[in-house]
Amino acid sequence: MTANYRIARIIGDGGIAFYIQDVIVKPDYQRQGIGTQLMDKIMEYIHIHANNNSVIGLMAAKGKEPFYTRYGFTVRRMTPRQRYDHVVEN
Length: 90
Prior knowledge:
By secondary structure, the chain is of the alpha+beta class. 23% of the residues lie in helices and 38% in strands.
């Protein structure tokens, strides 16, 4: 099976600022824990490479708040695409 049913990217400077981009799982594959696996890997990478008080941001579709809040993200601005921030504290 190819991996074209999911994607996740992280952009940043590798230490202070990180931006999680395009955490997407095709609808036929959702609710199988794939998004959770992607976010777990992204957060693992961030916690290994982030400095104390690094900032992690992302934008998410409305209705996805519970998925991201369990990773410590909080809503910062109410827009059609929610912006979330999370600060790493070592």
